[in-house]
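Justification of computing resources. Each target in the renewal requires a structure prediction run like the one illustrated here; the chain below, 136 residues long, is used simply to show the kind of job we budget for.
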Amino acid sequence: RFFAFGRVFAGVVATGQKVRIMGPNYVPGSKTDLNVKSIQRTVIMMGGKVEAVPDVPCGNTVALVGVDQYLMKQGTISDHDGAHNIRVMKYSVSPVVRVAVEAKQASDLPKLVEGLKRLSKSDPLVLCYTEESGEH
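Resulting structure tokens:
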């Protein structure tokens, strides 16, 4: 399971709270790239430890459970209907390594694709794509 990790800029984020999850393509006033869901759990990550807490006040970092499937790399989470999303970070580095991967057995291809999706989701600098030839 993935955690959505970030900083609380204002207010308090709590377990069970209904929030608006705005992706990088969200435009205020529209429904595109917008999901309204509840936070299943709020946790604080300290080194190798993960501790569940009922709520986290502003100024702290927090990991959220239950919203990760609606976010891809980055986004904004708010409980205010009129909130705008935070600008997407632009990275000034280009890919250094390019690797083509393939499954040893054709039956393992779905596992490979799922693993590449998870890698791409967890690291903002990883770029995964499929060539016309079918290469990943």
